[in-house]
């Protein structure tokens, strides 16, 4: 029991440290890569950059004020659980922005935008993967979804678009296009890190008379486990067996060669999957 408690304690500490790392990556991307070039790349941090350019108010103060308003709205229109989820990031990120040097690291705006976007996407992926949040503009989409059934992704896209458009009036067209590029890069990085770079394939195989031989060959050559399902043909209504296995994408060509060498008429269905956890099929 004591060992279990220790493991849980260390997991919680590791989770907190990881969230802090993610929040600091966001702070670094904003303070050292976006703000020096006046690039407001969506979200609450983008709003903070626009406000600084207009009224010379510190990023951390604007972000903290905005996050407090979002937290209050969460308490009013959503629930305490969601408010608790965004509390930590809503407070810590402005603190990290305040202590992270506002320094020009890269003079070239495009290169700075690219690197900042990668760091921003990595930071977001870390805190999202751990079930945390930095608050900010993620709150209005949740409220709109609850009361008007508008998809979170759609409303968040509109909000980020409005913030990006603000670059035109505050800093110019160059910053606008850099902001659009940043949103795209950050989204790509976020998606790849969230779902994993090492994509897998789930493959379903049906063969009239050679399924056992196909299973044996694939298990021996590719060294992957498999599962057999009892299914029924939709047209014939006859009982059949279907083989399912998970494999790396680079092995798919080899799998097809093995299957078609055994049965040219085998039915194969493949789909990409993001993650596989535990167990042997």
Automatic annotation (TrEMBL):
Membrane topology: Multi-pass membrane protein
Record-annotated DUF2179 domain positions: 225-277
InterPro entries: DUF2179, N-reg_PII/ATP_PRibTrfase_C, UPF0750_membrane, YitT
Transmembrane segment boundaries: 12-34, 54-74, 86-104, 110-131, 152-170, 176-193
Name listed for the protein in its UniProt record: YitT family protein
Pfam families referenced in this protein's UniProt entry, alphabetically: DUF2179, YitT_membrane
PANTHER family reported in the protein's UniProt record: UPF0750 MEMBRANE PROTEIN YITE, UPF0750 MEMBRANE PROTEIN YITT-RELATED
Alphabetic keyword roster: Cell membrane, Membrane, Transmembrane, Transmembrane helix
Cellular location(s): Cell membrane
Entry-linked Gene3D superfamilies: 3.30.70.120
One GO term describing the cellular component: plasma membrane
Organism of derivation: Bombilactobacillus bombi
